[in-house]
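Re: the request from the purification team.
They wanted to know what the chain is likely to look like in 3D before they choose a buffer screen. I agreed to run a prediction and write the result into the notebook, where they can find it.
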Amino acid sequence: MQTVTGHPETTEALSQAEVARIKADFEILEHQVNGTELIYLDSGATSQKPRCVYEAEQHYYENANSAVHRGAHTLAVEATDIFEQARETVAKFIGARSNELVWTSNATEALNLISYSLSNASLGRGGESSARFRIGAGDEILVTEIEHHANLIPWQELAFRTGATLRYVPVDEHGALRYELLDELINEKTKLVAFTHVSNVLGTITDVARFVTAARKVGALTVLDGCQSVPHMPVDVKALDVDFMAFSGHKMLGPTGIGGLYGRAELLDAMPPFLTGGSMITVVDMEHAEFLPSPQRFEAGTQRIAQVHGLATAASYLDEIGMDRIAAWEEHLGAMLFEGLSKLEGVRVFGPSGIKRIGTVPFEVIGVHPHDVGQFLDSRGIAVRVGHHCAQPLHRALGVSATTRASTYLYNTEQDVTALIEAVASVREYFGV
């Protein structure tokens, strides 16, 4: 496996003592739930925040609150400096240049930004510079069967608006992508290939290079969903060689309401805008407008300045600890989860075995509905996710409508994993199955 999608074999994982010190930065993890200390195993949905992140937001509001790029007074200049320095910090965190990072509300908006920009290009917006983004009848868009709905529905809608055909890479009975079909599915008709870096359900890591290589052969654009990779492993967009990548702040210790879109500078500058209004224009008259280059052309209106500052603080926090060491620790916890749950009678664990994964494992307790499993675990102070995890097609392929998902992060301990496994072992007896 490439080091850009995981971590070197020689990387030393975090020690249990280091994890204990990290955990102390997260005040919410000191909470009592149903009379016991909270064990938070739902970071795949949203991560908890270290003290420094919300202190950064508070510091901005108390000391530099002002609109960015809009004023010459001191506060406006200071706010703009904070805003753009944060862009440099987060861009560096993912291996990008600052002009290649567009702020969005979340990863869902980032993916829709691409979808609607391509729709506008297909209508002729952007002129000849955006001609390469035009999609129409006879063209194809490729996704996979493991995608989160946020990386599926925008492409369904793009196909509907343009007349293109949507195709997908299926999974086998274990949920593994069928890579052997790529050469058949990606052809001269393919204009865009969208795929996840890490499955939000299975925790499995996609072979990005195989997708990119196949797409490059036919000149198709590549869009990577980095929501579950950017928080959990080292990510370098230049090494991955993708055209676009979306990610979300709240899953990587940052605030809610902030996400990012990486795009190659030459592509972003040629794409027509998605949202329009103030702050993204150069000249406006009553008949037409001209737009700024990226990233400003995609950042209409008042920006999320405090959230951006909080996200940059989160990225610096993760960087200081070391993403390679975080990845190694989570791989260890993920293996503990997968192996421990697999040994329990009456428990089915989903996903291919014997491969590297982040610390995310879905399972079902035979005869007990996942929602009941989740409530039972909550009674023990253990927070997990239940449902289809915004991935209904994958669950249908696995033959279930819902699963229980445990997902770890850098603040989880071996004791957390052990407590979950012991609690799951008691579920069937509790419900009389």
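For the purification team: The first strand starts at residue 32 and ends at 33.
Please add any questions underneath this entry.
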